Prior knowledge:
The structure holds two protein chains of two kinds.
Chain A: H1 3-24, E1 27-33, H2 39-55, E2 59-65, H3 68-81, E3 87-91, H4 95-101, E4 104-105, E5 122-125, E6 128-132, E7 135-136, E8 139-144, H5 145-150, H6 164-177, E9 182-185, H7 194-206, H8 226-240, H9 250-255, E10 262-268, H10 272-278, E11 282-285, E12 296-297, E13 301-306, H11 312-322, H12 325-335, E14 338-339, H13 342-346, H14 358-367, E15 368-369, H15 377-392, H16 397-414
Parallel strand pairs in A: 1-2, 1-3, 9-10, 12-15
Antiparallel strand pairs in A: 3-13, 4-13, 5-6, 7-14, 8-10, 8-11
Helix pairs in contact in A: 2-12, 15-16
Chain B: H1 12-39, H2 58-64, E1 66-71, H3 95-98, E2 111-118, E3 122-128, H4 131-162, H5 169-181, H6 184-194, H7 201-209, H8 226-251, H9 255-264, H10 268-279, H11 281-296, H12 300-305, H13 317-327, H14 331-359
Antiparallel strand pairs in B: 1-3, 2-3
Amino acid sequence: MSRIKIFSLVNVLMLSLFFAKAAFCQTELTMWWHAAGEPAQMALVQELVDEFNASQSEWKVVITAFPQIAYNDAVVAAGLAGTLPDIIDIDGPILPNWAWAGYIQPLDIDESLIANYLPGPKGVWDGKLYGIGMWDAAIALVTRQSYLEELELRTPTLEEPWDAKEFQQALDAAKNSGKFDYALDLGMAWTGEWYPYAFSPFLQSFGGDIVNRSNYQTAEGALNGEEALAFGEWWQNLFTGGYAQAMQDGADRDIGFTTGKYAFTWNGNWAALGILEAYDDTIFLPAPDLGYGSKIGAASWQLSISSTSKHPDGANAFINFALQPHNLARFSEGTGLIPATAVAAELTNNYRAGGPMEVFFELSDSQGMLRPVTPGYPVMAKVFEKALADIANGADVADTLDAAVDEINANIQQNKGYGHK
Amino acid sequence: MPPTTNLTTSNSEGWTMISPGFGLIVFFIVLPFLSAIILSFTNQRLISPNPTEYVGLANYKQLLSVGVLTLDPKRNSNGAVVRDKNGALKYPRLRNFTRNNPQYPHIKGMRELFSWNVGDNQRTYILARDVVFIKAVINTLLFVLIVAPGQGGLALCLALLINQKLRGINIYRAIYFMPVVVSIVVVSLLWRFIYDYESGLLNNLLSSLTFGAFESVNWIGDTDFALGSIIVMSIWQAVGFHMVIWLSGLQTIPPSLYEAARIEGASKWQTFRYVTWPGLRNTAILVFVVITMQAFALFTQIDVMTNGGPLDSTQSIVFQAVERGYGKQDISGGSAISVLLFVMVLCISLLQRWLTQGRS
């Protein structure tokens, strides 16, 4: 090694020591994030953290990333062991469960930042704000303008969506045209949270629900009442009638619509960019109104602070920093997700007035419906998923929904009502 | 003075040396097992602010309660039985009796497990409070009953085939053993592709072998085939492991016995029946006990390939224990299932022990 090289190496070492010293003054905040293996999102989070760390001298956020599939397990295990980080991100519908269990604490957020927020990204339990999302997600019935014209179907609008009859006519037209393997791609390949997220809005549009939301103490009547039975029969007919597959492989879900297998696909806005690339006449239709209005699921991942955090003030400072409109906009631009406020939406290319995905912002704002806001949700989600899979596979509708109600009710009782007042 | 052994007297070095291993076993196997027994009598949740309470046998009652109900067919106003368009008798819906019916408190919330006709018209229903669990038990027993002889027998055949002095025989040994080394999760994922309904390898292969006459089967999506498909794949996956154990047993049999048999003019079957099989007795006990225990622990294949579906046709006991304990945050229910599984495996192991000891 030449002398110059050694000299420059020493220089670098000294310089880095100098910068490290600056960093030593900052108190470290640990943060867990669910998106390991998704480079686009991780890069955005890292950028946000770096900017926050550079913007002030008191706090230094350090990220640990987990793959989504193992994330909830890791948090629950850490919660049981009492080793949660300061900041965690949580999937919206699970938030009441963790808040009830005492894993997270209420946030201290500048009201002006969340004044005109979409309803979905706010994680509220027991009247307090426990989590706040930087974005929301929305689902639409995706198809092509050319398909609608070919099948001679009216183009539905937010004000005037298809009703149940029109939706059935659309499915029949697609099926009878013989052009498609199946009329509708529901995404049956995506097991897990997709089922309650994507399909319980159909049930709600029929007038039923997973649980009676007046006090969250019973599912009787909500999940097995007349409306729910009508939903169940309708749901089963989608499969027995040959409109959709009860069992789908993942590849069909990913590329089936863009290779012409399906006429319609029930899909989230995160898939929209890819579909827009495949077909330039892609259109996003609102959910059909099956009797009680068009409904779609709301709430995505949210930021919150663990109850064991020693520095909630620092964690709150970071979350307030993250919620600034330009940060929301940047996340949306990078991931295709819906920015949580209209101000931020105007800063993006996709969601600003006239942008190609503007409709999703309106969908989320006007039709977004939270999944049951109760600590019992994780169990309800599992029960609901199994009931829908069984009905799709031909199980008796009334018996299956009864069994689901019994299981949900037994669980609520075992948990002494989950703390609802 | 009572007799003492080296184990108990002045053997501190021995105890010191086994203490790490012994400690690990106590910490990771004995203690969790004891806590499972204790938790199964409580209402412990995975995460909950509510205090844990003793609930007695409630978890076991929930899992094991069964009931019987006999129903008369529906009759119209003239008293004649009603038949549907296929001529089958129509019966009132069970939910009229099992839900919100104060006259039938003993079957409240139960569901049909199976039913059959008795006499001319009446139909008897066997009801269970936890149909999914009972189905899981039935599926697991069926799985064990087929996999234990199937896998053990196939492994023995493979061991006999590769127990020869041929050139390159090690290549075959390696090939048969390879699935054992690959993670079961990976194997399950691969078989999911193989079994795929529309573009799977198996359907394509059968279709091209029969020049298109074979109609695609939804191997893991059809209630008639799902469990069978899992069984075939499971036998294939672990057969290599048991083959190696059989092989080690085969190689302990002295060649002189085979030579003697050949001199006596024994046929191939006679050699196997009177020389090889008796020499494998202890190996056979080991192989079948291990397979039985592994088969009872059926979980990963279900978790990766079917999630217990379609229509509960592939539910298994361990899958239900995990699904409840972790997925549904019901640690006490999951513990109760684990304890029941332990009792079942213990009974079968004792039975096997008694059978094998009885012969000698």
